[in-house]
Design brief:
The complex is a heterodimer. By secondary structure, chain A is mainly alpha-helical. Chain A has 12 helices and 4 strands. By secondary structure, chain B is mostly helical. The chains are: A mainly alpha, B mainly alpha.
Chain lengths: ~250, ~425
């Protein structure tokens, strides 16, 4: 006698359904638990997430200081800064460690990625400086000080101070403390550019009051409608400048 | 009765005197033994222009040995020295290897260079500091040493003076080096193992010799020495904040369970897809791949893989793996959702061909917390190689997360998705910073 459960038709249906459910359950358990695959875009923007956490889309400030805006800066300038950090001409342990295993070609790609970003600028910081200090800052930025061999900022950084292609950065839209910090770093030799280091020469001719004044004034300026760096200068610069010379080659 | 004439004191003074004399004699013997090696190697040799094939071979070997990592200072002239290697005894400065007559190797013969590599002695017989890993380089063949020498002599001479080491007394003495060498160094030539393949032997020659992998991947004792028995079993890189994992332990970085091609791919490109959710070198190893192993030939990389895969498996002594508190895990999960999930996935599964998985990732689950914490603090790119020219990278969270948050998220990833490593404390994080 074959062992077949003697059931009413209803019971057989229930048994069949139960078996089906159990079988499905067994199949589920037998399949390996696979987490949903997670993908990210195969783009430079995705790769640059390593940078934008700190630099953000428009530069970002934290308790430990300011990360300057890098979006929209001339590619030549950004490339040279990346080289300077990797080669120790600019001092930032975090930047240096990130750039150590990267090739020159990739640094060039990174620079070009950020250079073409066209993002809005936030409104300028409200200035805490007295009007006299701001006036001094404006005078230095627009006219320089011929007696002390300090050229006007606009002589190299563009009449609109938005930078000049291929390698001179704009000076607007940067935090005041970052500007003070960089001019100070050139004064003390912490920051270097390619020789001849024109910014070191200029910064060392400035007093602390000059640095404060021009930084306050620059940080207080709104960006013009056209925020892009100006096309390459047709006239020679007032000073021999390493990066510009190299970029022109 | 005065103290000085007490018989007990007199006896003690005699014993002290005797002990001092014995110590001095012993040091003298060590020093004499170590320095006397100088007599064994003739130094005269006439410099001859080297054939270009030899110079090319030397350039390749310099890559294999990653000489530039120490002997080229950041932003400095190639092989002109000046880079500081920090040790627990003070900084040691790499020397000028360019053929400058006064400051470099311009006055050195191939014999003198060979003596430095095989015996760890300078041209004048002076014992060299073993931060220059001659306990590994001693295995180099005479032919390879001559090729390296030819390459270095072909470089443009750079008149950069060598900086004196900043070692504290007594570590800055030749006597100290003599003692160290007695304990830890034996000049040796590479003896192929006849029971192994030629491939394996070539790999052993590279890994134990020029590759000097053991210099980072081994534990060092209080005198900075490496015991033979613990070679390649993992080493904390003091002063750099990373841990070079054990190449023998399956729980760390052992490659016995990989295919040879996978080992080759990791050393050649810096990344490996499809193994445990993706593998990527980071930190100092990213620099090693970038400057050294990505330039090695497929044959040499296969040989190194053969050797590395043959290392007898050895797990570290099981350390306690304390469970994180529920509060710490909750905070860790919050931090993870905010900062990590976009790249590393909701289940720690990583992102295919971009970011490694954290679930089942040995760099996360190994006993030491140092690497996961350092990765969170410093971030890092995989190396730019021919096989991965535009690597993905991780941002540094050093300025964005507090110690409490770093400890929490590190504990969270080490104890989620099946990972069962120990929790990370705030003190752990502070020490890594």
């Amino acid at each position: 006698m074959t062992f077949i459960p003697v059931l009413r038709p209803c019971g057989r249906v229930v048994l069949f359904l139960l078996a089906a459910v159990l079988c499905m359950g067994a199949v589920q358990a037998a399949e390996p638990l696979s987490a949903a695959t997670h993908t990210v875009p195969d783009t430079m923007a995705q790769r640059m997430q390593a940078c934008t956490l700190c630099h953000g889309k428009e530069g970002r400030a934290t308790q430990s200081g300011y990360f300057p805006r890098i979006a929209g800066k001339p590619a030549g300038y950004l490339y040279h800064q990346l080289l300077h950090f990797r080669e120790g001409r600019r001092q930032n342990a975090g930047m240096t460690a990130l750039l150590d295993p990267l090739s020159d070609a990739y640094l060039r790609d990174i620079a070009e990625h950020f250079a073409v970003l066209d993002l809005p600028y936030p409104p300028p910081q409200a200035s805490t400086a007295a009007p006299a200090e701001l006036a001094r800052g404006q005078a230095l930025a627009r006219h320089g000080d011929a007696q002390r061999n300090i050229p006007a900022c606009v002589a190299c950084h563009g009449q609109a101070l938005t930078g000049v292609q291929p390698a001179i950065p704009g000076l607007l839209g940067l935090p005041r403390d970052y500007l003070i910090g960089q001019l100070g770093a050139w004064q003390t030799g912490l920051r270097h550019a390619h020789a001849p280091d024109c910014m070191a020469q200029i910064a060392q001719a400035m007093t602390a009051a000059d640095v404060s004044a021009v930084s306050h004034w620059l940080a207080a300026q709104a960006l013009p409608a056209n925020t892009h760096p100006a096309p390459p200068a047709s006239r020679p610069l007032p000073l021999r400048c390493g990066a510009a010379l190299e970029a022109a080659q | 009765m005065s103290v000085s004439s007490s018989p007990v004191v007199r006896r003690l003074l005699w014993v002290a005197l005797l002990a001092t004399v014995v110590l001095c004699l012993t040091l003298g013997v060590f020093l004499a033994r170590q320095l006397n090696v100088a007599a064994l190697v003739p130094l005269a040799s006439v410099p001859v222009a080297a054939p270009s094939a030899q110079v090319e071979r030397g350039a390749y070997l310099a890559r294999a040995g990653n000489c530039a990592a120490c002997h080229t200072a950041r932003g400095g002239a190639a092989y002109a020295g000046g880079h500081a290697i920090n040790t627990p005894f003070g900084p040691v400065y790499a020397g000028n290897l360019t053929p400058d007559l006064t400051h470099g190797l311009g006055a050195w013969s191939a014999d003198a260079f060979w003596r430095a590599m095989r015996h760890g002695q300078s041209r004048d017989g002076r014992l060299l500091n073993p931060v220059f890993p001659y306990e590994n380089f001693t295995l180099i063949s005479r032919e390879d040493s001559d090729a390296l020498y030819a390459f270095l002599q072909s470089l443009p001479p750079v008149a950069q003076p060598n900086q004196p080491h900043g070692l504290r007394f007594p570590y800055n003495t030749q006597a100290a080096l003599a003692v160290w060498r007695e304990l830890y160094f034996e000049p040796a030539s590479f003896e192929p193992d006849p029971t192994r393949t030629a491939d394996w032997n070539q790999g052993a020659y590279l890994v134990r010799g020029l590759g000097h992998c053991a210099a980072c991947h081994s534990p060092r004792d209080a005198l900075g020495g490496i015991r033979q028995a613990s070679v390649l079993s993992g080493g904390l890189m003091t002063g750099q904040g990373w841990y070079a994992p054990s190449l023998q332990a399956h729980s760390e970085a052992g490659v016995a369970q990989w295919s040879a091609q996978q080992v080759v791919d990791l050393l050649k490109t810096g990344v490996l897809h499809g193994v445990g959710g993706g593998v990527s070198v980071m930190g100092p190893m990213a620099d090693v791949v970038f400057q050294s192993t990505q330039h090695l030939s497929a044959d040499d990389l296969h040989a190194m893989a053969a050797y590395l895969q043959s290392l007898p498996p050895s797990e570290p002594v099981a350390a306690p793996a304390p469970r994180a508190s529920a509060a710490q895990l909750a905070l860790g999960e919050q931090v993870y959702q905010r900062h990590c999930v976009d790249c590393h996935g909701a289940s720690g599964q990583g992102a295919a061909s971009a970011y490694p998985a954290l679930a089942g990732n040995r760099a996360v689950t190994q006993a030491s917390h140092v690497n996961p914490v350092q990765a969170i603090l410093s971030g890092g790119f995989a190396p730019a190689t021919a096989g991965n020219p535009q690597p993905y990278g991780m941002p540094p969270y050093r300025t964005l997360l507090t110690d409490v948050e770093v400890a929490a998220v590190a504990s969270f990833i080490r104890q989620s998705w099946g990972n069962q490593a120990g929790a990370v404390t705030v003190l752990n994080v502070q020490r890594v910073r």
